[in-house]
Structures are given as C-alpha cells and as structure tokens.
C-alpha cells in the first residue's frame, strides 16, 4: 500500500521541510506545496536541493490559504497514482511536524486490517516535552462517538485515496489564510465525510511530534470565534446554531472572566457568514 505525505508550507517556512522528510522508504512519497506571497526566495536554492529526491515532489503555488494548499496537494497526489483505483493512503502533514520512523508501518497496518476504514485520525505528541497536549481516547473510537473534549487537527488526519476520488475537498472558506475564517476546516471536512457515509475512526497510535499550539487554541481571537460559529452554522440548523453559539459564549465568558455579549456577536457573525 502506497503512502503519500502531503505537506503544506509557505514562503521561507520551506526551510523547515527537510526535517520533516524521513529517509527514503519503498512505497512512500512526499508531495510538498510551497505557497509564495513575495519574491524573497532566491536564498532558498540550497534548501530545494536537499529535497531533490525521487520520492519528493515540490509544487510552487502563488498566494495563500492553507485549504487551497491542501487541496492542491490532494490533486497532485491523485495524479501520481498509477491507477485511479489504486489503494493508497494520504497523510496530512505540516512543515513543523516530525514523523516517527515507524509511522508509515503503523498507518499501513491500521488500514490493511480494516478494509472498510476510510479515514484514521492518529495521535501526535508535543515536540517540546513528548506529552500529549490534548485528550485522546485510549481505545479505538468511531469519530461520530468521540469524547466531547476531543477536537480534530489536520496533521492527525490520514485518508484512503478513494475518499478524494469523490471530489471531496477542504472547504477553502475556512483555515489559515482564508478571508474571514481562520480555523474549523477539519470539522467541516469530517462533517462532509460523515454525510457521505465514510468510515472515520480515532486510532490510539502515535505517528509523530508537533508544536502544541494550534489556531483553534486561541479561544478569544475574533477570527477563531467566527470560525466556531461558522462550523456551528455549517453543521446545525439555524436554531441549534443559535443556542450552541450562546452556550459557547457563556462558557468562554465564565472561563476567562469577560462579558458574553461581545463573544456571542463574534460567534454569531460566523454563523451568518456561512449561511449567507
């Protein structure tokens, strides 16, 4: 089973990508999408030379938008398959991630043991101290029944190639670099997958390390609040989104000692945006 690692990076952050690459391994490839927003990249020739390997493809892309980058990587990965029906696994990765040497074998084993599995969400540890930086289930769980405290991150996500052959993609209205919403793309993608009947599981297996700070962890940022509201508006009825937004605003207000009204207004603006 082929494994393709899809890495998104932007501007001079590409300098960190060689550290993400593991030694060449049979049946493993890397698709790197390098977004460029300025012209200051002449000094990166040496970095690009270190990635001139047979298992690495670097795609240059103008502009920004993390979901745009992820979608371009998916398209390139599908094009690289020898057959449209080939069974392969796509691994979503960031440019500051460190994959474990045994990661690919663990991923293959999970998919080979469960032919009906379409997407597996694995665990990563903090690269600073090796601990888990969020609550993971301690046993295999169907995503639709995940613990309330669990939230998905893109760099935990792996997919069979057949998921993307349905033309499912990340919603480019969400995520870093988007116009109005800086988070929530994982929730929306998984919601779309559930609607299509795909089998998604959370797997209690470690595959790597990453920095423990995510966009969604900045709870009081206006953009994060809007993104939460947009996810509610995308997944729920308008009435349910209203009450979910109100509950979240009150919960954040209590935790942070701030007034709930302004928080609610930001969250609700995300609901209105996504349903307009």
Using the alpha-carbon principal axes, give the shape: globular
CATH topology of the largest domain: Spore Coat Polysaccharide Biosynthesis Protein SpsA, Chain A
Mean pLDDT across every amino acid position: 93
Strand content: 15-25%
Work out the helix count: 8
> At the first level of CATH, what is the class of the largest domain?
Alpha Beta
- Number of beta-strand segments: 9
**How many domain units?**
2
Determine the structural class based on helices, strands and strand pairing.
alpha/beta
Largest sheet: 9 strands, mixed
> Low-confidence segments, ≥5 residues, pLDDT <50?
none
Keywords, separated by commas or semicolons:
2 domains, 276 residues, 9 strands, alpha/beta, 34% helix, nine-stranded mixed β-sheet, Spore Coat Polysaccharide Biosynthesis Protein SpsA, Chain A
Task: Describe the 3D structure.
There is one protein chain. The protein is α/β, with parallel strands linked by helices and 276 residues long. The chain folds into two domains: 2-213, Spore Coat Polysaccharide Biosynthesis Protein SpsA, Chain A, CATH 3.90.550.10; 222-275, no CATH class. The chain is 34% helix and 21% strand. It has helices at residues 45-49, 66-80, 103-113, 161-164, 185-195, 222-235, 238-256, 260-275; strands at residues 2-10, 28-36, 56-62, 88-94, 98-99, 119-126, 141-142, 157-160, 200-210. Strands 1, 2, 3, 4, 5, 6, 7, 8 and 9 form a nine-stranded mixed beta sheet that branches. Strand 2 (28-36), helix 1 and strand 3 form a beta-alpha-beta unit. Helix 6 (222-235) crosses helix 8 (260-275) and helix 7 runs antiparallel to helix 8 (260-275). The radius of gyration is 19 Å and the shape is globular. The termini are far apart.
